[in-house]
Specification:
It is a single chain. The chain is of the alpha/beta class and 342 residues long. 32% of the residues lie in helices and 17% in strands. The strands form 3 sheets. The chain has a 7-stranded mixed β-sheet with strand order 2-8-7-6-5-3-4, with helices on both faces. The longest helix has 22 residues, at 254-275. The radius of gyration is 21 Å and the shape is globular. The two termini are 15 Å apart.
Length: 342
């Protein structure tokens, strides 16, 4: 039985970024358990971390361990000699540091995209304009923010196109590229282009592809002096000691990466074929699929009542974003889709 007749608002008054399982548990007490969380873009087949050595919680990482973690990032992302990897506990400190240390600027954000970029730059006093395509960025922009691949639309710009398009801008804007989902398509990374671009900052995350969002590790790849400024902002111990010690082995595991990319690609294709039966697919990566449907609110409510969380968008009420279910979750999710009554 449904407990709501209107589209629910996840976490009223707060930005929405998935993780709606607690909301469903509170508002749909009769929903099947466990709640299946498809509201995020996190890999449902995460990297297996080693058992925790409790001693790691009782000390700070030493300089050699922290340097090993940075060097592992340099190797994994293919960073050249001029760029520096800066570690942080999640993406938010990096976005905030970039915005808070810059004088009031004209910021162009290519959207719709991850909402924290706009929220943070505006909170730091910048004039933010959201445009719908790279071609719409005004030449007067002093900062350009782009997610590539984009969340939630999955849109990708070839790195050469990005560079060529912005090359003619006389003021050489700060270019911030959020590549949180680029592990799925490493060929789309802007990193090879940035060696001669001191005004570029590439943001990467271990939470999506590696599936370790709770580990809270993000990386900024950038030149001096931006790197030194960010290092001051995040402090000398920017990530936990366990994360620092686990990171090198995880990033060096090429066999896991190759196997996981293949699995995600195959399962995402099969998942899209199922969703096509009910919705119009308007964007995707191998970790999430964006769909459009007339009664998106009713679909969102029905799935919540069945213990399945998906992402809705108040600014785009006809959109829903589905994460990738595991093989074990798929029968229950498919049955819920079939049970919807228009």
């Amino acid at each position: 039985m449904l407990h709501h007749k209107t589209q629910p608002t996840l976490f009223p008054g707060e930005p929405q970024h998935g993780a709606a399982t607690q909301w469903i548990s509170a508002h749909y007490p009769d929903a099947p358990r466990p709640v299946i969380d498809l509201s995020t873009g996190i890999n449902p087949y995460p990297y297996t971390l080693p058992p925790v050595d409790e001693a790691l919680y009782h000390r700070l990482a030493d300089p050699q361990e922290m340097q090993a973690a940075r060097e592992a990032c340099r190797i994994y992302y293919g960073v050249g000699e001029k760029a520096v990897p800066v570690l942080a506990s999640g993406m938010q400190p990096l976005i905030f540091a970039l915005a808070a240390t810059r004088p009031p600027s004209r910021v162009a954000i290519i959207g719709p995209t991850y909402g924290e970029h706009k929220r943070v730059w505006e909170a730091c006093g910048h004039a933010v304009q959201e445009v719908t395509a790279l071609a719409d960025v005004p030449p007067s922009a002093e900062v350009v923010v782009l997610c590539n691949p984009n969340n939630p639309t999955g849109r990708c710009y070839p790195p050469e196109f990005i560079r060529e398009h912005l090359a003619g801008f006389k003021n050489k804007p700060l270019l911030v590229i959020d590549e949180s989902f680029a592990d799925l398509k490493p060929e789309m990374s802007f990193v090879p282009q940035m060696e001669s671009l001191p005004n570029a900052v590439i943001l990467r995350s271990l939470g999506k592809f590696f599936g370790v969002a709770g580990m809270r590790v993000s990386i900024a790849l950038c030149h001096e002096p931006i790197a030194r400024m960010l290092e001051v902002a995040v402090g000398p111990w920017p990530i936990s000691t366990p994360a620092c010690c686990w990171l090198p082995a995880m990033l060096a595991d090429g066999a896991w990466r190759e196997r996981t990319r293949k699995q995600l690609s195959e399962e995402s294709a099969a998942w899209q074929n199922i969703l096509k039966q009910y919705f119009t697919i308007i964007g995707a990566t191998d970790l999430f699929i964006l769909v459009q449907v007339e009664r998106a609110g009713a679909w969102h409510e029905w799935l919540a009542s069945q213990g399945i969380a998906v992402r809705n968008f108040h600014e785009h009420p006809a959109w829903l974003r589905f994460g990738l279910p595991t093989g074990g979750q798929l029968p229950r999710v498919a049955a819920a889709l079939q049970g919807f009554e228009p």
